[in-house]
Structure formats: structure tokens, C-alpha cells
């Protein structure tokens, strides 16, 4: 591509509402333009990247045996009423009335439409399993669209839906899709993790989210050093310490601690690390307050707490008045020793392994030292209550956990019979009996991947594309070709050579000055840059630089071509 | 592709509302399924065809220097108010309110959005000309959606918009697009014509519609035998006869003709052909009635008549009472001889070349024989008033006209400054002066082409795809492979051989009986069919048949492969 024949429109200033780096860089590079809140035009440059992602997704879906189709964006209300989602989906559903007052929505997802298709098309177990997918524009009327295409209202999605006679078959296709997703993100050159997800709301059997790792990610992910285990930090299990609890060594001692309320205060006051301090949190239970005990250096995981049988399905901290009424003591001095019998004491696994610990004295300005479970304090139940931390053992026993932040770009989900049951989608089995189908669904945010990749791959000069996503793999920058026919000739020659080798190369023949040209090529993130200048041509060399390296090298023609042959073979 | 791994779902019965053959065949072949009125799901089979069309369109647009981008489907009301089309576009515009009560529409076309994009992106004449295109889903809320994807509400369109400093530049790109469209339809293997279109409403300079020729087409097209001239029949010019009008030979004679009113009656009564009879039609003019005179075998073209200065911009026939009041004579007996002076006599070019003709006598039950212009009858004006007919000379002087029916699938249009003016889209010229841009727009109905191709290419057994549009170029039908390992082996071998040669081939391994399998393959229209049977394998041959031929041939392996090498080279 000759850039003089293309539309490159980089800009210096971006609107203040571009809060995250991918949004700013996509605007600055001229990949997207805002049409309305959460609604973006993909410029020619942006579309090249979007299509690269789309192509890899399509190839891997095809390879995994999924069959592409195309469902409409406009969907009739009647189908959504069959599953009850016309109401339940909430405000994100963009509802529409046509000229005949028929009610429709702009599809935010296609479970209803594909299940309707399947119940009409699939009659026999012989047609199963089958996995339909599409790459198609969706709309979700986000209440606060932001972050550019990261959380846009109109977006491009790949969604797949598989149909099965049995749960086992659903599980097999689920694994095939899991593997396909791993190949997709690997081919795109992204650092990612497949993360166990909560299946609570929909009630399926298994679910994984695929996250692109980036410091700016909204979700914290715990992953194992020794396996592919990964889970949202909120969901990762904290194992009990391997070593048994030591026997008590110290005697219980009541210590006055005026004004010493926080773990930090206690730790300093007693001259011990926070992990030897026990903190006690009072929350509202089904019947009165409940005490949750954790090590001073650990944080309560409210999702885990909410699942305790003593709690009403959510974890709500008790207020100061409630605490004083139930214990006669102000917050900061509560502990398990001598706590009123009516309050259950739930102890985190790590806290349960402590001996000779310090805890609140259940009286204002008082603590206990040398406290021990059983001997001094009741244990109603030991449970996993805390958030995992860096260095915790992995729940699968293989290595330790690291914590990273991630951006969700894919989701695989076993839907079970939820939709097929609601919409009466069944097939005849081998015995001629009608059986409700099992379903899986598998989504990828195609347009979101573009933004996530930038969050992961950028520097001060701009985007640093992985090869597979770059708008062009290489750029040839020509310095003052009008002044020197030899320079123009050398650039044209190299351009033709690279094209002939199948390298997707851009010839920057726009006639910009070198500084502006280099800034553009760096900003839009081309992985390989070759500069053709008068001095280089005189020396028989080109100046080559990788986008992710700071140094350039003088290479002759053969060396430049060899470079692309090597990378072509690797990709 | 192994068809056992694909989703083929042909059906026997189609709904009664499938009125045209393409709609019926697309449903029977299982290419589309209706979701709601005018809203269709493209099944895997249908999508394969749609993607073939899309690909050819994309390749030729790229080749013609157009640059692909992707604009949103949801567009804000504010832009449409700038051009006044929020009201003017009418009921086809699907209007939408989002959760914050903002007003939007589902884009039926993108002039507003692209002009907004251009006014922000294009600052200098140096960036011109530029031609942006997209292939994208559109919605028009048709009051009566029908004919399947031929007139659907949600449809796939390629739309392109070019921007220019001058009208001349616009004209050059217009020609480039015209040629690209011709290549697209030629590559798709369709019989088509580029037809001069009426530019009245939008007021641009030039406009052509591209029509796929098919007997079921809604539009009648006149095209020349000796050139690429083609026009909608309503717009094709009827030339004056080449020979001069003969001198009068007969005397004017008044003849009683009781009850002889129609051209057919007159022709029979006088024993002369219809082309020697003059028919006179009275229409409402700006001031009183106007007489339009045509040859008895010609039809009035109301679009041409409406443009006469004597008419008020439309052509409305006078009622019987008006005629009697103005002439004292009942309809059927009106003629130019002795017509009241107040009524202008506009004579069609062909009628003006008549001598010694028969016409109405301006008295009930009376005609004139031997009538002649000038000598007997006034001529206010000679004009082109009639519809062209088969065999007329071509307006460009090259050969004669034929008439065919067509389906509009593409449209190229010079918009001029209409949108750029309304939306303030200008660039700086070489003198640094702001100048409003000129625009062209170029649309192709991608999904409509699929239906139009079927209207043109089908037989009693189903669709007969042109090679470039077929879901697969070839099908291998295997007869009873489970009973005979050699048959299975021969089929697999041929399948691999064809794939290795880059032939897009389907192996029908679904295990159907031969009759059902052949019916499916014919219905879905695969151009080449190779049958692998026990008898054939024993004889070392395959049974080959082209979809558009009635006879099959026994060919050995080498001959089958040679066949596809030949067609590959041709395509």
C-alpha cells in the first residue's frame, strides 16, 4: 500500500474524555472517530486492524469445526419474551418500534434468535453436535459508555452457539472452543489467561473468561506459576496453610491498648508482624451479627463470605451502633475471646492456623496477647474467607499464585438446557424420543480486542502492535525522494521486493519531513521500519528498526529481505 | 468441505407468501430463514454465497482505489437534521430512542455520516480525491417488505462516497466506479446492463443504474444492439424516423364509423395496420386540455409527456366529461383535424412522419381517412412522446433497441455539492480558499445480488449458479460408500486431488440415497457434479455433469482434473 493513496490522519490533541491509553492512542493514530456516545466509525486504518483480528478468529473457528452464519441485528420482542429476557435484560437492551408499531430490539446477543433457528432446523440427534457462529455488529445501550471501543455501545462480536444431545457432548465442544480461543489469542500475539468464571447467575456447569493481561485491566486475576490455573481474584481459593497449627506456647494475657485500633497500630504497639495479629469483622447474619476472623495481613473476600450459610446471601458490615449494642465494645477492640455466645465465630483457614496471636479484648482500649483457638476462643466454623495474595500456593497444588490485571475479551459458557428448555428446542434421540438440547455459547469481543491489545502493547511514542494485528507488518520511509532519484528508486525497488515476498508493507510516499513521518509510523505502531535515505543509498544500506527496539541497524538489501523471510517462516 | 460437517437443510414446502422464484428457491435450498417481516437469517449455505459476492465487490473496489472503512449502523438525529432528511426520508427511516431519550436512526444509507466524517478529516485539496467505501448492514423500514432478500428491511450493502475539489474530478471518479461496477457484475457471471437513470429528484449531473437482466425484473430496459447504450424504457429517447414524411397522396374523407372506437376497431374497419392509424389522447394542461397524437401502435410515455411545457409537470388523462365539454365529442372519436383552436396539438415524432392517415373525426361515430399534417391538421409542436419499442433505432445511432426486464442491483450517482453544501464540508484549495467539495455516491445491494442472480439463473430443478457465486464450484456425490470401500476410497481420492488443485469442492458424504442427494445438489445449484458409484469405479470412470447441461459424461480421473484446471485458468 502506498500511503499517499491511503487515508492516514494522525492527530495531536485528543478529547479530555479519552481516559485510557488505548482510547487516546486510537484517536491519535486515527483508527476511530466518535459519531455519538459509545458509537465509533472505524477509519480505513482502524478497519485494517479490526479485519486482522476478525480473520484470525474466523480461521480458528472454522478449524474448530464451527459453521459460520449470519443472523439479523434486529430481533422481534416475541422471542425475548419466551425467555423472559425482554424485561430481565434491563436498560442495555435497545428497544425499537417499527412503522407498524411492532416491537424489536437491536440484538445485544443472539441466544434467542439462534435457539429459534435451531428448534426449526434441528430435528434429529443425527444433526448434533453442531456449532453455529457469526461475526456481527451488536448494540448494548451502556448507561455510561466510555473508554472508546473498550466499552462501546455498538461493537463487533463473534458469537457461537453449540447444540448437543447430552451434557457430555456439550462439555467436549466446550473444551474444543476453549482450545480454539487459546489458539486465537496466541496467534494474535497477546499475553492472556483463561480464567475460571462464576457461573452463578445463569447456572451452567462451566465457564471461563479469557483476559488480555494489562496493568489497566478492570479485573484482578490470580494465576499459578506451575500450571494454567487462573481465576478472578474474587473467586480464587485460598488454601489452608500446609503446616499444622502449633500448640499454644504463651499464656493468655489482657493488655490495655488505649487508642490502638487498626491492625497497623496493634502491630506497632506489640512489635509483631501483621500476620500474627487477628482481625475480627462483624457482619450482618441471618440471625444477628456474625464474626469473621482473618489474619491482620489478609483482606476479606466478600463474595466468599456471602456464600456462608450463616449469612443472608450477601456480606454487609455491621454499623458501629449495632456492634456496641451486641458486644458493649467499640469497633477496633472486638475479638473471639469472650465474645457473646450468640455471635458465631467464622475463622479463615489461615487465621485458624495461628497460635499465640494478638486480638481484640472485647472491651474498649483492650487487647489479648497469647490468645489461642479452642483453649481461649470458640471456632464455629473454619472457612475460606480471604482474597488470595501474591505468593499464595496455587489451589491446584502446582506452584504459587501471581496477581495480574486483565481485560475480558472472550467468554466460553456451558448454558445447559436453560434456553432450549424455555424455547422448546428439542430433537428426537435414537429411540425417537424428544429431548431438550444442551447448549454452549462462546463470545469474543472482536473490536474490544483491538483496544485491549493496545493497553498491553504501547510505549510513549504510541502503539506497538504484535505482528499479527498490525495494519502493515513493515513501513518503508523515504527521505526526500524528490531531491534524489536514486533514493526514490531504491525505495520503490525494496517495496516491490517485499510485496513480491508476500510482506504486507506500506510505502510512506506522502512526502512528509522525516520527523513527522517517523512519529506517524511509530504512533500507528508498524512493527518494522526501513528508512531509505541519501546517505544510506550511497553506502548501499537501509536503516532498519524494530518498533519494540530502541536501536536501529544499517542493513543491506539482502539482509532486509532475509529478515522478513525469517519472520514470515515464524508466523 | 464435507457436507456431513456442514448444515444443509433443504425443504420441500415453502410459505405461500414466497411470490418470486428466487425467494422460493432460497427458502427451499435453505439459504435464508425468516426471522420477522423483511428480516432474514443467512444460513451457513446462504452466507457462503453472500461472502462470494462481497469478496468480488471488495476486490474490485480496492482495485479501483477506493478505501474501505466501517461506519456505525446507529446514527444520531442531529446529522440528519442538517440535511433535512430526518423528515424528508419518510417512513423507511427506522427511528430509535436510546435509554437517555437521545434520538437515532438505523442507517438506511450513509451520506450524512460520511459527509460529517469528511468535513472533520479532509482539510486540504491535497487529500482529494478520495473514495471511501464500506460493506455494511442497513435497514429500511419498507412498508411492504416482500420477495425475500430482494426487498428486505435489513440488508447488506456496499456504499461508497467520493470527495472532490471540482466537478471534473467527480466525473473522472464516476467513470472509474462505472467501470468497476461493470467488472464486478462481469466477474460474478451475470448478464447485466448499465442504464441511464433519471437524476431529477437529487439534481446531480449523471446517474446510472446497474440492472441484472431477468424476466421477473420490475423495470423494463431498452438497450442497443450495437453499443452499450441502455436506458430505462421510460427514459429511452425515441428518435424521429429517418425517412422524411411523404407528400399527401389521398384526399381528406369523412367516414361514418358507428361504434368504432379503439385503434384495433379502426384498424379492422379500415383494413389498415395500426401504425397508419393516429390516436389522439387528451390530457390536462396548464390552461385547458392538450392533445397528444401518437401512432396507433405506440404507447404514450407519461414521463416524457410530463416534461412538456404545456403540461403542469405531470401527465393526467382528461375525463370523459371534460372531453365532451371541450370538444363536443365522446372519447374514441377525437382527432387533430378540426379540433378546437384552444387545444394545442403535440405530435409524437413518429406520428409526425405519417401521411394519409386515419384519425378521429371530432364528431361521434365519425373518422377521417386520408388525413395529412399541415394540409388538414395543425401541429403545435413535434416532440418525443412515446415509449420506445423493440426494433426502434438506438438513440446513439448504433443499431436497434431491444427491450428486457431488469433488477436494479447497483447505482452510481453524481451528488454534486448537495450534501457538502448542507453540512459545510469544504477544503482549502491551492489558493488557501475554502471550497465546498463535490461528491459522488456508489451503491451495490450485496444481498440483493444473490436473489437477482437466482432470478436470472434457475431451472425447474433449482438454482443454476454462475461459477463465481456458487457455494462450492463442484460436488462429489458418493453412492453407497458404506457398502463398497473402493467407492469411498475413489471419492476421498478425488476430493483430495481437487482440494490440492485449489478447487472449492463439497464432498457429499451425508449418506443420503442417490435421488435425494442429486435433488439437493441440483437445488442448491452446484455448477459441476461428479458421481462416484460402484459401476463407475469398476469401469475406472466418474459420471460428470454440468449443472447447466442435461447430459452427463463418463470421465476418467485425469479428464475430471483437466476439466477443473481449464475452468480455473478461465476464471
Automatic annotation (TrEMBL), chains A, B:
It catalyses: tRNA(Pro) + L-proline + ATP = L-prolyl-tRNA(Pro) + AMP + diphosphate. GO terms for biological process: prolyl-tRNA aminoacylation. It comes from the Bacteria. The keyword Cytoplasm applies. GO terms for molecular function: aminoacyl-tRNA deacylase activity; ATP binding; proline-tRNA ligase activity. Coiled coil: none annotated. Its main location: cytoplasm. Its EC number is 6.1.1.15. InterPro entries: aa-tRNA-synt_IIb, aa-tRNA-synth_II, aa-tRNA-synth_II/BPL/LPL, Anticodon-bd, Anticodon-bd_dom_sf, Pro-tRNA-ligase_IIa, Pro-tRNA-synth_IIa_bac-type, Pro-tRNA-Synthase_IIa_type1. Keywords: Aminoacyl-tRNA synthetase, ATP-binding, Cytoplasm, Ligase, Nucleotide-binding, Protein biosynthesis. Residues 38-466 form the Aminoacyl-transfer RNA synthetases class-II family profile domain. It is an enzyme of class 6 (ligase). It is found in: Cytoplasm. It holds the Pfam family HGTP_anticodon. GO terms for cellular component: cytosol. NCBIfam families: PRK09194.1, proS_fam_II. Belongs to the class-II aminoacyl-tRNA synthetase family. ProS type 1 subfamily. Catalyzes the attachment of proline to tRNA(Pro) in a two-step reaction: proline is first activated by ATP to form Pro-AMP and then transferred to the acceptor end of tRNA(Pro). As ProRS can inadvertently accommodate and process non-cognate amino acids such as alanine and cysteine, to avoid such errors it has two additional distinct editing activities against alanine. One activity is designated as 'pretransfer' editing and involves the tRNA(Pro)-independent hydrolysis of activated Ala-AMP. Consists of three domains: the N-terminal catalytic domain, the editing domain and the C-terminal anticodon-binding domain. Homodimer. This is Proline--tRNA ligase. It comes from Mizugakiibacter sediminis. The gene is proS.
Amino acid at each position: 500500500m502506498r500511503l499517499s493513496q491511503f487515508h492516514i490522519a494522525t492527530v495531536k490533541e485528543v478529547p479530555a474524555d479519552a481516559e485510557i491509553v488505548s482510547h487516546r492512542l486510537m484517536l491519535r493514530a486515527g483508527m476511530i472517530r466518535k459519531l455519538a456516545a459509545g458509537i465509533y466509525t472505524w477509519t480505513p486504518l482502524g478497519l485494517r486492524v479490526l479485519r486482522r483480528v476478525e480473520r484470525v478468529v474466523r480461521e480458528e473457528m472454522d478449524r474448530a469445526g464451527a459453521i459460520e452464519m449470519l443472523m439479523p441485528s434486529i430481533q422481534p420482542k416475541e422471542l425475548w419474551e419466551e425467555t423472559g429476557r425482554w424485561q430481565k435484560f434491563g436498560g442495555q437492551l435497545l428497544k425499537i418500534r417499527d412503522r407498524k408499531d411492532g416491537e424489536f430490539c437491536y440484538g445485544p446477543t443472539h441466544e434467542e434468535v439462534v435457539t429459534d433457528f435451531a428448534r426449526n432446523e434441528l430435528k434429529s440427534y443425527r444433526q448434533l453436535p453442531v456449532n453455529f457462529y457469526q461475526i456481527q455488529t451488536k448494540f448494548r445501550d451502556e448507561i455510561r459508555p466510555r473508554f472508546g471501543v473498550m466499552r462501546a455501545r455498538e461493537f463487533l462480536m463473534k458469537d457461537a452457539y453449540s447444540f448437543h444431545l447430552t451434557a457430555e457432548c456439550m462439555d467436549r465442544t466446550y473444551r474444543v472452543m476453549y482450545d480454539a480461543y487459546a489458539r486465537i489469542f496466541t496467534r494474535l500475539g497477546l499475553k492472556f489467561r483463561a480464567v475460571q468464571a462464576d457461573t452463578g447467575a445463569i447456572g451452567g456447569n462451566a465457564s471461563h473468561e479469557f483476559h488480555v493481561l494489562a496493568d489497566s485491566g478492570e479485573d484482578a486475576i490470580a494465576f499459578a506459576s506451575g500450571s494454567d490455573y487462573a481465576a478472578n481474584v474474587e473467586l480464587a481459593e485460598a488454601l489452608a496453610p500446609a503446616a499444622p497449627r502449633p500448640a499454644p506456647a504463651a499464656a493468655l494475657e489482657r493488655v490495655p491498648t488505649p487508642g490502638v485500633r487498626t491492625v497497623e497500630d496493634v502491630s506497632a504497639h506489640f512489635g509483631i508482624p501483621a500476620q500474627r495479629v487477628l482481625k475480627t469483622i462483624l457482619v450482618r447474619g441471618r440471625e444477628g451479627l456474625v464474626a469473621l476472623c482473618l489474619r491482620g495481613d489478609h483482606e476479606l473476600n466478600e463474595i466468599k463470605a456471602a456464600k456462608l450459610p450463616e449469612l443472608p446471601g450477601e456480606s454487609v458490615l455491621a454499623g458501629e451502633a449495632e456492634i456496641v449494642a451486641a458486644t458493649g465494645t467499640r469497633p477496633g477492640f472486638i475479638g473471639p475471646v469472650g465474645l457473646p455466645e450468640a455471635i458465631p465465630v467464622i475463622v479463615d483457614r489461615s487465621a485458624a492456623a495461628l497460635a499465640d496471636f494478638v486480638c481484640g479484648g472485647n472491651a474498649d482500649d483492650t487487647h489479648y496477647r497469647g490468645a489461642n483457638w479452642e483453649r481461649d476462643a470458640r471456632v464455629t466454623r473454619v472457612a475460606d474467607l480471604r482474597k488470595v495474595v501474591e505468593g499464595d500456593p496455587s489451589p491446584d497444588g502446582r506452584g504459587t499464585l501471581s496477581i495480574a490485571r486483565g481485560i475480558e475479551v472472550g467468554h466460553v459458557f456451558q448454558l445447559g438446557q436453560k434456553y432450549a428448555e424455555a424455547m422448546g428446542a428439542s430433537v428426537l434421540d435414537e429411540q425417537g424420543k424428544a429431548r431438550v438440547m444442551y447448549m454452549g455459547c462462546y463470545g469474543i469481543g472482536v473490536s474490544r480486542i483491538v483496544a485491549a491489545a493496545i493497553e498491553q502493547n504501547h510505549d510513549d511514542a504510541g502503539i506497538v502492535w504484535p505482528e499479527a494485528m498490525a495494519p502493515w507488518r513493515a513501513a518503508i520511509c523515504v527521505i526526500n525522494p524528490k531531491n534524489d532519484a536514486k533514493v526514490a528508486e531504491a525505495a520503490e525497488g525494496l517495496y516491490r521486493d517485499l510485496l513480491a515476498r508476500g510482506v504486507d508493507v506500506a510505502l510512506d510516499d506522502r512526502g512528509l519531513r522525516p520527523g513527522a513521518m517517523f512519529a506517524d509510523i511509530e504512533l500507528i505502531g508498524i512493527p518494522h521500519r526501513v528508512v531509505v535515505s541519501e546517505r544510506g543509498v550511497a553506502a548501499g544500506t537501509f536503516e532498519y528498526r524494530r518498533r519494540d527496539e530502541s536501536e536501529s541497524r544499517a542493513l543491506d538489501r539482502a539482509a532486509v529481505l532475509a529478515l522478513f523471510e525469517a519472520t514470515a517462516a515464524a508466523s
